[in-house]
Amino acid sequence: MPLNPIRHPMAIAAGQLDRGLRRRLAADLRTALVRGELTLHYQPRVRLRDGETTGAEALLRWHHARRGSVPPAAFIPVAEGSDLIVALGGWVLRQVATAAAARPWLGRVSVNVSARQILSRALPGQVEAALAESGLPAERLELELTETLALQEGPEVAAMLARLRDRGIAIALDDFGSGYASIGRLRRLPFTTLKLDHSLIAYLPGQAADLAVLRAVRDLGHALGLRLVAEGVERPEQRDLLAGLGFDEAQGYLFGGPVPVDALVPDALPGLAPAAGSPTVTAACP
Ligand code: C2E
Ligand code: MG
Ligand code: MG
Ligand code: MG
């Protein structure tokens, strides 16, 4: 039996999916939305100073009728190959805004945005529609952009993002340090938040040189007025070290992995469990 290229971890980088499979996945993805195969999971983000949950990142999940679970690393690049990602991105924004509006204690929700959504100029309209339909305050939304997008940016993109930021929406540079970082770009686009890629965190506590890199990123980020968030925090030593260095927030399996929306209850989120005797904010679905 040949390896299932979707499940085999070495083959899922979409560039390695053969063209036939890519085409089939793209076709299936078009119907996945109406078939209800796509869902969002949410991963908590925690303030390092006091361990309180400050919000959650929405992450797409695809349960394919025949193939089972297909990871975002396989299907997001496929969707990004066409305007499908624009429609998908709009759907994600509406879903997340609605879920967050119904959960006022959840804090700020982060949505990953693809370059094509921005370059197609669809993003501002999608954001406004999602906020208007749900009633979610703009201050409770964050958009996460990757460095690959920043590579293509021009003054028009910067102006579009600045208008969103001026509405109160947080703008994060995702996966910082994963390979394409340019420090100049941090100044050219109106970011409010810097998310450090898990590759910078994975080997911590690590060596003196690893710490030197983190200190430099911290100083740069804070000098630019950015909120610094570490991704992929899996161990208590990493949390303690990042807290000691003065990083603001963290995300990772240590605090909780991505979970379905019904599992998003204060009791299950770090720092949000209601004090004894206070009324339960909401009940978990069975
Ligand atoms: P990302 O935005 O950098 O999301 C973080 C990824 O790290 C998620 O993978 C998450 O499940 C994983 N993760 C969380 N905690 C840990 C940890 O402690 N250790 C490690 N090693 N990993 C951790 P996931 O869910 O497979 O998503 C992969 C990527 O797919 C995301 O990376 C994002 O770039 C993209 N993606 C997911 N949902 C969407 C979406 O709605 N729209 C777009 N455009 N892209 C999305
Ligand atoms: Mg992200
Ligand atoms: Mg990331
Ligand atoms: Mg990523």
TrEMBL record:
SMART domains for this protein: EAL
Residues forming coiled coils: none
Domain EAL: 22-272
InterPro entries reported for this sequence: Biofilm_reg_signaling (IPR052155), EAL_dom (IPR001633), EAL_sf (IPR035919)
Extent of the signal sequence: none
Gene3D superfamilies, per the entry: EAL domain
Cited PANTHER family: BIOFILM ARCHITECTURE MAINTENANCE PROTEIN MBAA, DIGUANYLATE CYCLASE DGCP
UniProt protein name: EAL domain-containing protein
Native organism: Roseicella aerolata
